[in-house]
Amino acid sequence: MGLFTSKMRLLTAVVIEEKSENVARELLRIGLLDFVKISNIIDTDDFHLKQDLSVSTEVAELRRRLETLYQQAGIESPVREALIIEQMSDFNEAKYRKLIDKASSGIQELREKQKKLHQDSLKLEEIKNYLNRGGFGGRGGAVSDFLSIHRGKPGRGSFDDLLSHLTSIPHFGTAVPGTADFFIVTLKRDQALVSEYFTKYMWTENDEQIRNKQHDEVLLSDINERTVSIKTRIDEIKTEMSTVIIKQKDEFDTIWKNLRIHELYGRIRTNFEHTEKTSLFSGWLPADKSERLEKAVKKASDGQCVIEWSEPEQYSRQSVPVEIKHSVALAPFQMLVENYAVPEYGAIDPTIFVAVSYMIMFGLMFGDAGQGLVIMLIGFLGGKFMKKASGGIKNLLRLFIYCGAASVITGILFGSYFGYKIFPPLWFDYHGIVAGHGALGSGNITNVYDILRITIYFGITVIGLGLILNWINLLKKKDYFRLLLDKSGILGGWFYGCGVYTAFFFVGTEYKELPAPDLLTVFFGIPVLILLFKAPLHFILHERGKKSFDAFKIIDFIMEWIVEILEIFSGYLANTLSFMRVAGLGIAHVSLMVAFDTIAGMTGGGAAGILILIIGNILVIALEGLSAGIQALRLNYYEFFSRYFTGKGIAYNPVSLRNRKQEG
Amino acid sequence: MGKTAVSEYGYINAKLRTRIGRILTDDFKKILTASDDLEEAVQVLQNFGFEKIAEVWNSTGDIQSVEFELLKRHLENFRMVMKNTQGELKDFASLLAIKPEIENIKNTLRLWYGSRVKKRPISYRSAFIYKDRIFEDIDWDALVNAVSQEDINGVFKNTLYRSAFTENLADKAGSGIFKTEIMLDKIYYANLLEQSRILKNSDYNILKDIITIEIDLQNISWMIRYRHFYNMSFMEMKDIMIPGGSSLQFDILEKNEDAAQGSITPTDLLKKDYPELSAFSISDKHNFSGQALLLEQLLDETRKTKFTNLLIGYPFTVGIILVYLFMSEREMKYISSVLNRKYYKMGTRQMEEQG
User: Fold this and answer.
1) What is the distance between the alpha carbons of residues B144 and A170, in angstroms, rounded to a whole number?
2) Does A457 lie in the same domain as A581?
């Protein structure tokens, strides 16, 4: 783990054509190279290079189709399982396609059945709705506005044959209990079709028989039974669909892995360019791994290769991929950094600073040992029970553990345990100060203003650290102009340092005096004057000859000067005061706990009081925890990162069997 | 103290702007159209927040059920807008809901007409009529099961739409129900423009601006359909055009009635209000439908520009609501169209050809 992003090197290799497949396999096995097109780094016009287009769209298509099958069965593809190059076998497209087609067509057949059953259920539902809407009425025949209920029997052919002709319309038929008659329920709108088949089957309507309540119950019960049976069958079909996939899972897993390996191998091959007898490729990798890769390429090509190494200094920093190396422990904070942006190559890796500042900020805003323990537990239990969760969720759960731990520590320092002072505070009594009932044993922190002062000190430290990190970055980049004259450079730092001194001097004299005028001239007058020359100097050093100089340019310089002065003064002031939110949220947290305690007290204690305290704690953990997490992130992103972090980097993304990132 | 634009639009517009940013993103469209088949497309939908749509497909295997679910989702958006607005703005939002209600009426009438006149049973399809109240209190079951014109008239007698049902639809065996459909559209636009005067002037002007293009688009669409496919005369076309669009030069239609077939083009009709059309070069002046399709695209682009201006302009206007509901409709149609193409196994080229 280093303070800066990993050092990278660029490999350019030429291997004999007949060994190129071996080399590609080895590159995939070793999984270190983030490829760059040869034509992007050297002029290849004279070489007449041909590109390898062996990456097959068919491979990707089959892999995607397989993943769809997995999803249909509700099972995971083997994306989490480790891939090894030895699993790579021939890409037997015909065989794979046949298997996948067979499974797909099996599912397709089931889908057709499912659709048909669903449509039958819709028809039945319509009849059921109208029956419920209109009621059954008294005698047989029409009972609702839209239904026709017939009782009778066919004089020719069977009842089932008659029904089979009515499948295109909503209908329901059943036997009338204890008689030779049948009920047929249809819709009036389909009367023409029904009449046609009634005539054909010589249907005799039994007008004399009264349809009684028992008959109605039988009819409704039969319809319900039929509806349930259709729904059961639909569910069975869903299970059958899963079974089609699950019973072949092992075979599909093997195919999926082979397809995935072929896909990655294809990606490597597309980065190879060819002359008649050689293959060329190029890519970035961490410098400490270059020896290993060189050996591997030489071995795979039986030494028939030429390898050349280039250093990143030869290229623009923004074109060099960035690797950030950390222990797993810092992964949650790396996630926070990467969500903002990837740092520029060669710059300071902010992860460790973010980790420390984030936890301190969270702890100060959410200082309660008991509630912190709950957050830690949520993180631990989540990690234990959500083993299949994505990397992002796992990192979030780990962040819970860290934030919880920070709260436990600050909770002990403030003597707060679920809002109660069970043990005396080790630092100061936050609750006592906010509630206004004394702050014994709190040393020189005795009121809310003292708490605000702590957060201002903290803000000054964070901004100061940001400035120092920026100077280191600029020094490394040899960007001396910005190092000296930028608003986050040494001149900006001078303004900030003097501003802080002046502010404390002013407060120290109870808002009556400022430092001596001579001192103020040195603090601000001279730097402001120096700043006046920044824009002209920049023009002379970087733009002369490229841009014209005229009278308007002088107005530009003056405008830039004024705007920059305003930006420096207002920006630093706002950035520093912004840290008061840390105290604000901390005070709000304590106030909420005090409020819930008071409400619980008003109930006279007992079960109701305990319930209020439990609900209060849950609310505070959920709402205040979220607020503190967001505000800590905001302070890092805007007040801290804005001083030194240039997120212009591109992430190091080697083609590797371990890389779980999926492409289309 | 009267309501300010900020108090009136602050919450709803912030909510809608967030949602607009998530509608039909390039990433979503790219992945959805690239899916190999319907099953894969449904999985894509599931991963982009359309879990309910995927659930419906997985439990029914029926694309019509999926389309119906998309419609319900779209109508839910109207409800959400109405729920989060008050006073005149709420009344206006409910006026916008007349449009999907009219689409629902048309769908129901088509089913009814197919069953009653064309003798094609409705079968299970009445399940795909949206039966909850949208704007008017309509008995949808009575409409789809109507056995006579009186039944239909009865359904609409106390509604905004009664004037569209003066003719006996069952007698229209040859000509279909398109005149009724047109009447319904005319009712929608006339009512919207009339009733929207409750809005502030600035809001009304925004609405008028958007609706004008929408009417132009609708008219062009009909011109393509009826002129090209049914060879309708210009005078007949004049009768069906929706008033309110700023651009169609009806006098040109009249003047050219006696001219030779195809001597009039949509370009001639529209260029007065769309000066950019003067640079519009179409080689085959007589290719009516080709030109009209291009013009439709152009008007669509003009509308997009207006929507973009609304989104980047002053945030507290009715414009955001109009953009959101338009985008919601477009999302529904887009997804529905992609799923249908996958279902009927249309290749990428066919998909491109059909837009």
Assistant:
1) 13
2) yes
A356/A299 same-domain check: no
Range of the structural domain that residue A523 is part of: 351-587+624-644
- pLDDT value of position B247: 63
CA distance A223 to chain B (A): 16
In a domain, A107, yes or no: no
Report the C-alpha gap between A589 and A515 in whole angstroms.
38
Give the closest residue to A330 by CA, choosing from A341, A321, A338, A340. Answer: A338
pLDDT in the model for residue A159: 94
- Is residue A510 located within the same domain as residue A628? yes
Please tell me whether residues A147 and A208 are part of one structural domain. yes
Chain-chain contact of A126 with B46 (C-beta, under 8 angstroms): no
Residues A312 and A365 in one domain: no
Residue A542 has what pLDDT?
84
Look up the ipTM and state it.
0.88
Q: Which one of A109, A117, A125, A189 would you mutate to disrupt binding with B, by most B Cβ within 10 Å of its Cβ?
A: A189
| Residues recorded for chain A | 664
Read off the pLDDT of each residue in B185-189 and give the average, rounded to a whole number: 94
Highest mean pLDDT among A8-17, A431-440, B171-180: A8-17
Selected residues 10-39 of chain B with any CB under 8 Å from a CB in chain A = 31, 34-37, 39
> Which backbone phi and psi does A302 adopt, to 5 degrees?
50, 40
| Tokens at A269, concatenated | 């091959």
End-of-domain residue from the set A224, A257, A291 = A224
CB contact under 8 A, B127 and A192: no
Does the CB of B55 have a partner CB in chain A at under 8 Å?
no
Any idea where the domains of chain B sit in the sequence? 11-85+336-355, 86-335
Taking CA atoms, A78 is separated from A251, A421, B71, in Å, by: 12, 51, 36
Nearest CA in chain B to A194: B121
- Average pLDDT on A343-369 reads 94
Q: Which of B90, B97, B55, B56 is nearest to B76 (CA)?
A: B97
- Distance in Å, alpha carbon of A170 to nearest chain B alpha carbon: 6
Encode burial over A583-610: b for 16+ CB neighbours within 10 A, e otherwise. bbbbbbbbebbbebbeebeeeeeeeebe
Are residue A148 and residue A289 in the same domain, yes or no? no
Q: Which two tokens stand for residue B138?
A: 């309509």
Nearest residue in A to B123, CA atom:
A169
Domain count, chain A: 3
Query: Are A190 and A149 within one domain?
Result: yes
Q: Does residue B1 surpass a pLDDT of 60?
A: no
B126 touches chain A (CB under 8 A): yes
Calculate how close chain A gets to B31, using CA atoms only, in Å.
7
Domain co-membership, A386 together with A434: yes
Q: Is B318 helix (H, G, I), strand (E, B) or coil?
A: coil
Residue A639 included in any domain: yes
A455 has a pLDDT exceeding 90: yes
What is the enclosing helix (H) or strand (E) of B281? none
Residues A561-607 have pLDDT tens digits of: 999 999 999 999 999 999 999 999 999 999 999 999 999 988 887 88
Which chain B residue lies closest to A109 (C-alpha atoms)?
A: B61
| pLDDT for B355 | 42
Which of chain A's residues have a Cβ under 8 Å away from the Cβ of B59? 118, 234, 238
Q: Does A233 touch chain B (CB under 8 A)?
A: no
Q: A64 contacts in B (CB within 8 Å)? A: 35-36, 40
Q: What is the pLDDT of residue B108?
A: 96
Cβ-defined contact of B121 to A130 (cutoff 8 Å): no
Query: Is A538 in CB contact (< 8 Å) with chain B?
Result: no
Test mutation, B56, B124, B345, B348, chain A, max A CBs within 10 A:
B124
Q: Residue A94 domain-assigned? A: no
Taking one residue from A and the other from B, the number of pairs with CB-CB distance under 8 angstroms is: 84
Mean pLDDT value across chain A: 89
- Chain B contact for A192, CB < 8 A? yes
Q: Do A189 and B34 touch (CB under 8 A)?
A: no
User: To 5 degrees, how large is the angle CA B314–CA B315–CA B321?
Assistant: 125
Q: Which of A541, A536, A540, A543 is nearest to A564 (CA)?
A: A536
Q: Does pLDDT of B266 surpass 70?
A: no
Whether residue A614 is contained in a domain is answered as no
